[in-house]
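Hi support team,

I submitted a single chain yesterday and got back a structure, but I'm not sure I'm reading the C-alpha cell output correctly. Could someone confirm the output below corresponds to the sequence I sent? I've pasted both exactly as they appear in my results page.

Thanks,
R.
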Amino acid sequence: MYYKSLKKFPHDFLWGAASAAYQIEGAWNEDNKGPSIWDTFSKLPGKTFHGTNGDVAVDHYHRYKEDVRLMSEMGLKAYRFSIAWSRIIPDGDGEINPAGLKFYDDLINELLKYGIQPVVTLYHWDIPQALQDKYGGWESREVIGAFKKYCEAVFKQYGDRVNYWVTFNEQNVFTAMGYRWASHPPNVTDVKRMYAANHIINLANAEAINLFHQLVPKGKIGPSFGYGPTYPITANPDDILAADNADDFNNNWWLDVYCRGTYPALVMNHLKDLGIAPEVTAADAKLLKSAKPDFLGINYYHGGTFQQNKLEHPSKEDADAKDFSSTDPYLMQPKDSQAQEPETPMFNNVQNPYLTKTDWGWEIDPVGFRIALRRVYEKYQLPIFVTENGLGAQDQLTDGKVINDQYRIDYLQAHITEMQRAMTDGVDMIGYCAWSFTDLLSWLNGYKKRYGFVYIDRDDDSQRDLARIPKKSFYWYQDFIKRNS
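Hi R., thanks for writing in. Yes, this is the structure output for that exact sequence:
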C-alpha cells in the first residue's frame, strides 16, 4: 500500500524504552531479596558467556535516579521495566518484603516526577528459586496461587500510579528456552513438560488479568508476545500451507489463548496425536475464556520463512541454509532432532534470501514489522503496544567517550517508519518501547551484545566504573521524540 503521506503519531503516543529486572538491577541479594531461577542458573558452568551473571548487572538498583534523569533528558514518555517477584516476596508465596515494595515505589515516583509513564511487567523470566525448589516452578498448578498473591500485592501497591501492565514477557520464548532447549532455566529438555508448563502459565495469565480488572478497573493490562510473521518460501500452495502451519504453531498457539481463550485446533490435534498435548480441564477452559486483555504487547525482532515439510517433500533438504541445525531457536524455530518432533510434519524452516542479518544471525526485516502489526491487529482487534524492538551490536567506545551507533539509528528508523505505515493502514497503536534504554546483561550473551541508547562502561570480565555514556542513538531518539516524527 503506497501513501503520499503518512498518518502523524498522536500527541499522546508513548515513546519509550524497556528493560528487565535481572538484566539491569544487580543487588541480587540485598534488602532481603530472595534468589530467582536466573540467579541460580547463571552460575552453572558453561551456561552463560564467560560465566556472566546479573549479580551486579548495570547496578540500576543503586543508580536508578541517574538513569531516570537520563530518561528525562532524552524525553521519554514511557519506561517499561519488570518487577523482580523475589524482591517482593523472597520465597515466592510467603511474607511480603517491605524493602522490595519500597524500591519500586521509589522508582515509580521518580519516573512520575519527570512525567514518564511507568509500564510494569509482572514476569520477565525470573520466578523465585524457592518456588522452583518447592513445586517445580511452572510445572505445578500450586504456583498459580503464588503468582496471584504476588500480583495482588503489586496491584494494590502501585495500581494508583501505573496505568499499563504487562503480565508475561515472551511466554513463547522462555518456555521453549527453559523446557525445550535447556538454554534457560529450569534447564529441561522435554517437549511434553514444556507444553504442560505453558498451559499452567496461561492459567496464571488469566488469573492475573481477572484480578487486575477487579483491583485496578481504570488500568490496562495485557501480555507481551515475541511475534514473528511467517512467510512461504515460494508461491507453491504446499509452501503457503506450511507457512500457515508455522503461524499456528509459532504464534496462534499463544495469541489465540490470550485473546480468544482457546487453543488453535490444528496444533492441539497434532500434539494430541503425538501424546504431548497439555491437559485442559473444563474449569481451565472456562477460566481462559473469562480473561480479556485490554491490549497486546508485541516484541518484534524477526519472523521466519517456511517450505513444505521434509516428510512430504524430502528433496527440499538441499542446502546447509535449510538445515534445522543452522536456525535460531528464538521464536521456537527447530534446532535438533529431539526438538523437531512436533514441527517435522508441519513445516520446514528455511533461510530468507532477501534479508540481511545482525551480528548474531537475526534477520533484519522492517517490512515484517508492518506485516506483524497488521496481522495481529486485524485478527484480534486489540490496541497494540510495541513493548520491544531493537538491535544488539558490539558497540565501540572511542576516544572522547563517543559511541557512533549509526547502524542502530538506521535500524530503528526503518522499523519506526514501518510502524507508522501500519498505523496509517489502520492499526491502533498505544506506544513504542525500544529495547533497551541502557546496555544490559543480554542473558546468555553477556555484556558484549549491546542494545541500549546509553552505553554502560563495563564488559564481561570487569565492572569498571559502570559510567553511563549516551550514544549517538540517544540524541537521535531525543530529537525524534521532540518532533514526534
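A quick pointer for reading it: The first helix runs from residue 21 to 24. Let us know if anything else looks off.

Best,
Support desk
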